[in-house]
Structures are given as C-alpha cells and as structure tokens.
Design a protein that fits this description.
Strand content: 15-25%
Strand order of the largest sheet: 2-3-6-5
Structural class: alpha+beta
Distance between the termini: 15 Å
Helix content: 25-40%
Bound molecules: iron/sulfur cluster
Oligomer: single chain
Order of helices and strands: HHHEEEEEEHH
Number of domains: 1
Length: about 140
C-alpha cells in the first residue's frame, strides 16, 4: 500500500469513528482517542493495536492526529538532490524530526517526534474533520 492509499483509508476510518462520537465534546473525543481506550474500543483503527504495541513508546500516547498535519508528502517526489528523490518533509522542521536516506530516496523520519501525539497540541489544532486538519499533507 502506498502512503497516499494508507492516508485516505486511515482518514475514512477516522471519520467512521467520529460519526459515532457526535455526542462527545472535543475534550471527550480527545480522551477517547487515548491509546489504551482505542486498543480496546477500536481494534481496527491501527495495525499495531492487534499486538497492543505503540508507534511511540510513551505514556499518554494519543492517536487522534495519526498521521501528522505537519507531514508533507508527494507520491512522485518534490525534487532530486544528488541523485536522490525527496519524497517527504516536515513543514515545521521539528527538531525531533530526521531523515531516512537511502541510495535513491530521502524520506522524513518522524520516529522521535511526539508533536502530533500530545494532547495539548491536539487541542490547539482540533477539528472533528480529520481530512480538514490534514488538508496540506498530500
Ligand atoms: S517530524 Fe514531527 S511535526 Fe514533523 S511531520 Fe514528523 S511527526 Fe509531524
């Protein structure tokens, strides 16, 4: 599956959950999306839930903003640099972000970045429509 395919499939799953949570306030929705609750109530939302595994092993991991509104991705790549194609970047140049560099490609590495998983950040950018929040991603 390409990133773009995953992106739209994930957005549809997010929407299906949100369509069931219209009775909850924004704060309650954010609480609902805490990892521990999601593993129990929404086992199909993330592949890792089946193994009770987190993408980032931190307490208080929140899954509302998976993916990240600051991620930028272009299926065909942005440009070539020294024989490598740049496929993704971080729009805020997060200091926790990095790059995966292979022989012919450069990808944004979000492994160490916790920006979209913190509840204070989610509250700041909160929108019930996931596609709205992610409108600039790809
Ligand atoms: S480095 Fe952090 S803020 Fe930047 S795109 Fe990745 S997760 Fe988002």
């Amino acid at each position: 599956m390409t990133y773009t395919e995953w992106f739209y499939q994930h957005g549809d799953k997010h929407k299906a959950i949100m369509d069931r949570l219209t009775h909850l306030s924004a704060d309650e929705v954010i609480t609902y999306f805490r990892f521990e609750n999601m593993v129990e109530k929404e086992p199909d939302f993330c592949e890792l839930y089946k193994e009770n595994k987190k993408c980032h092993d931190i307490p208080g991991l929140n899954c509302y903003l998976c993916a990240c509104p600051n991620f930028r991705f272009k299926e065909k790549g942005y440009h070539e640099r020294e024989g490598k194609t740049l496929y993704s970047t971080c729009s805020i140049a997060s200091k926790e972000g990095g790059q995966f560099i292979s022989e012919d490609a450069i990808h944004q590495d979000c492994t160490k970045c916790l920006v979209p998983h913190s509840e204070s950040y989610i509250k700041n950018v909160f929108d019930r429509d996931w596609f709205e929040m992610m409108e600039n991603v790809c």
